[in-house]
Design goal:
single chain, 113 residues, mainly alpha, 4 helices, 0% strand, globular
């Protein structure tokens, strides 16, 4: 992700468009990892859990292993509206945007039955 948590909405949506070209738009969905008001132990578990032998600090380091800063355009769940607008701006249609923002996940889990 270009510029990490300092990425722009446009560069984030362009990354999604590039991913859709590789994998197909019906095979991608947003997973925000948005954890508000959680202790740093939660991010440590998310990064390392029991599945790795090496310490992963994500965008941080051993001296700054905290949650990364959220981009200004996605401070909380209200940022999904920004994603909706940004995805349409880079060329996705309404149905594709709805898929990326949740329907693709729904269809994936529905298929597990």
């Amino acid at each position: 992700l270009r510029d990490g948590t300092n990425c722009t909405l446009e560069s984030f949506c362009t990354m999604i468009a590039d991913t859709a070209e590789i994998m197909g738009v019906n095979n991608i969905g947003i997973g925000t990892d948005l954890c508000q008001n959680q202790p740093d132990s939660v991010v440590e578990w998310m990064r390392n859990g029991k599945w790795t032998k090496t310490k992963d600090y994500g965008e941080g380091s051993s001296t700054d292993a905290n949650f990364p800063k959220q981009p200004n355009w996605f401070k909380d769940a209200r940022g999904f509206k920004n994603l909706d607008t940004g995805l349409k701006k880079v060329g996705f249609n309404e149905n594709e945007v709805n898929g990326i923002l949740g329907n693709n996940w729904y269809n994936f889990y529905k298929g597990i039955n």
